[in-house]
Amino acid sequence: MVSSDEQPLVHDIRLSTVGPGRVTGQDVVHEPTNMDQAMKLHYLRGVYYFKSQAVQGLTTSKIKESIFTWLNNFYHTCGGFRRAESGRPYIKCNDCGARFIEAQCVKTLDEWLQLEKDDDGSLRRMLVSNQVVGPELFFSPLVLLQITWFKCGGMSVGLSWAHVLGDAFSAADFMNSLGQVMAGHQLAQPLKLAQSHISAKISPSPPKSKDPLSVKRVGPVGDHWIAANNSKMKAFSFNLTSTQISHFHTKVCGQIGTNQIPFFECLCAVIWKVVAKIRDGPEPKMVTISKNDPHGRKNGILSNGQLISIVKADFSIMEANPKELAELVLNQAMDERSTIVEAVERDQGLSDLIVYGANLTFVDLEEADFYGLELKAQKPAYVGYTIDGVGDGGVVLLLPGPKDGPHNGGKVVTLIMPEDQVLKLKFELKKEFSIA
């Protein structure tokens, strides 16, 4: 904590609004898909850290000038939500603008990153907005950008992204295109909006269908798009070097052979077992898996195209062999996307659902190009992403590590769990696998 007579770590915070440099036109709207609507209570918070060489000579006015051009291609991200007569939310494009936040930090970039190593995520939250949509939809920005200047050079770019706009892969593409504009490149193609909502075929008198197993109903939340939790959630992260990853793989799968199980599935197995061990009550016999679907993603389209599936076990998780669990995750995942779409369609887009944390949820973001945002041809020194709006089941994120330096080839694991479980989780992960 900072005493009253000391300067806050992050200070001189200034707020403004940015938007497309071109007029979008009257009454241009975008209707989020049913899958987009299912994700509306979740938010992505990303922070990109750049060293002084990457931002030398860069000013706020130059950044804003690029943003005005950049948002010409992404005008619906500057919209505000309205409701149709049916109550279904839609976006009136370029109506609200994106928020631009500028701040100063009393620490150098290296000092800050060192502080973050022993932090619970509260420091990083100073570098990115935690705003949610509502309670006034009309005035709620969907995108908030925060530029924080560090002492002696260096800068962070914080992205607050309403998940209703698209998944983490879309958010990464969105940010990477800013780097292209700042480098003077013209974006390859204008924004394409995902098709209006996906229609599900429903019989004239359908029976009452069960909800997808990967989601949980909450609320109703009305126009304030955040769900209440029974537990206070806390985040923590750990880094894995390429050597640690290799040892971890061998521990779970045995000696590396031709039928190697991917690292993500091995990580799921290990943490699934640990959570089953430390949680009170019945074991979690079902988990949710979220990962990229390259076949369902089209260039230039922002959407929630991630694969969402569930994995069920009919045996004891604590007594299971980690390799057995990893193979279950790899081979027995059941795609839930069509049932999620149907559930939202039945509710005419009025569903209040959570996906992350409805069950213990594992999210594979290894393929997200978080290090594709370049300034002066320099990649970020580090990129961190987390999710807000996570349910009590908790979430585990697997992210790519830095692309340059000693940590090249590594990975970052971030867990968002009920606060009363975090110490036990850290202890078990460190004791058994030396990874936290």
TrEMBL record:
<keyword id="KW-0808">Transferase</keyword>
<dbReference type="GO" id="GO:0016747">
    <property type="term" value="F:acyltransferase activity, transferring groups other than amino-acyl groups"/>
</dbReference>
<dbReference type="Pfam" id="PF02458">
    <property type="entry name" value="Transferase"/>
</dbReference>
<dbReference type="InterPro" id="IPR050317">
    <property type="entry name" value="Plant_Fungal_Acyltransferase"/>
</dbReference>
<comment type="similarity">
    <text>Belongs to the plant acyltransferase family.</text>
</comment>
<protein>
    <submittedName>
        <fullName>HXXXD-type acyl-transferase family protein</fullName>
    </submittedName>
</protein>
<dbReference type="InterPro" id="IPR023213">
    <property type="entry name" value="CAT-like_dom_sf"/>
</dbReference>
